[in-house]
Specification:
The chain is an alpha+beta fold and 108 residues long. The chain has a domain of 37 residues. It has 3 helices and 5 strands; from the N terminus they run ααβββββα. The two termini are 26 Å apart.
């Protein structure tokens, strides 16, 4: 599923593509900004988005075999939560009705 497909899926529940687009874009923006600033974003039942610092290291040029210094970098990481791991391993754990990761009642 890509971003457009996610928006289509959310729009079916929110009642409109415009509202769904705004909702998805706001969530993605919040995650990007927080992790870029060095913070973590934990979503219960899903997982944690966090920045990680990679130490500088020495690589090898594949053609010559010479050592090449690789500078340290900062990269994003996603660590899936326990529930996410469980339902991926056994999709039968997903509820037949309602939202899989909801913490509040969403029935109308």
């Amino acid at each position: 599923m890509n971003k457009a497909e996610l928006i289509d899926h959310v729009s079916a529940r929110l009642g409109g593509r415009r509202q769904a687009t705004v909702a998805v874009e706001v969530v993605v923006d919040a995650i990007l900004r927080e992790v870029a600033a060095g913070g973590n974003v934990g979503i219960t039942g899903l997982g944690t988005f966090e920045p990680v610092d990679r130490a500088p290291r020495t690589g090898r040029n594949p053609r010559t075999g010479e050592p090449v210094p690789i500078p340290g970098t900062r990269a994003p990481r996603f660590r899936p939560g326990t529930y996410f791991k469980q339902v991926v391993a056994d999709p039968g754990l997903l509820p037949e009705h309602g939202l899989a990761g909801a913490r509040v009642s969403t029935s109308d």
